[in-house]
Design brief:
0% strand, mainly alpha
Length: 206
């Protein structure tokens, strides 16, 4: 094979590689957009399936892990949601993106993780509940550090602090609910709920 033939063969091979990469990136972008559309239409089951399908090819993608976590959270599957949101948050530092974009993602990821942990704490037994509240508190702190103007994260941080300062309930659940209908103590955190934004799934920067 002469020099000219090798030259053109190299160009052809490089072109095939570039085209294959473009097709792969476009395909993943389309799949992510499809999953996000399902989420935005409140079809969380279909969204979950498509995010899980994407994870087969991109198992460490913080974007996909975060969006899957949101879908699971909407379905009430807190434990699995927390696992995925934690993995998403832990992968943020590896992302090659600008500081502004990374802070925005950090705020969103940790805010949603905090809400998932808070929700789990409300439903947990006393010891596990305390641990979840403490983790939620740290997540809201991270969200605030990423965006100091985030009033929702600040509100949830203060509410979680109040929860942690409360003594464990000594009354049974039925008695507490009956009293709650008659007495609303505005200084008591149990009568407040965290603020939950209508978060949209994040887009992928492939």
């Amino acid at each position: 094979m002469n020099h000219r033939a090798r030259f053109y063969l190299g160009i052809a091979a490089g072109s095939v590689l570039i085209i294959a990469t473009i097709v792969l990136v476009w395909g993943n972008t389309w799949r992510m957009a499809t999953a996000n559309r399902h989420y935005n239409k409140s079809d969380y089951e279909a969204a979950q399936e498509r995010y899980e399908d994407l994870l087969v090819d991109l198992p460490k993608s913080p974007y996909i892990l975060h969006n899957l976590g949101l879908s699971l959270l909407r379905k009430g599957r807190n434990d699995k949601a927390i696992t995925n949101l934690q993995e998403a948050a832990s992968g943020l530092e590896e992302l090659k993106t600008g500081k502004s974009r990374k802070n925005k993602l950090k705020n969103e990821f940790y805010y949603n993780l905090g809400n998932a942990l808070y929700s789990s704490a409300v439903k947990s037994q006393a010891q596990q509940s305390t641990a979840n509240y403490q983790e939620a508190l740290e997540c809201y702190k991270q969200a605030i550090e990423a965006d100091p103007k985030d009033m929702d994260a600040k509100y949830n941080y203060e509410l979680t602090l109040l929860r942690l300062k409360q003594p464990p309930p000594s009354q049974n659940q039925d008695q507490q609910q009956n009293e709650a209908r008659d007495i609303v103590n505005m200084n008591d955190a149990q009568y407040f709920v965290p603020k939950v934004r209508e978060e949209e799934p994040v887009d992928q920067d492939w």
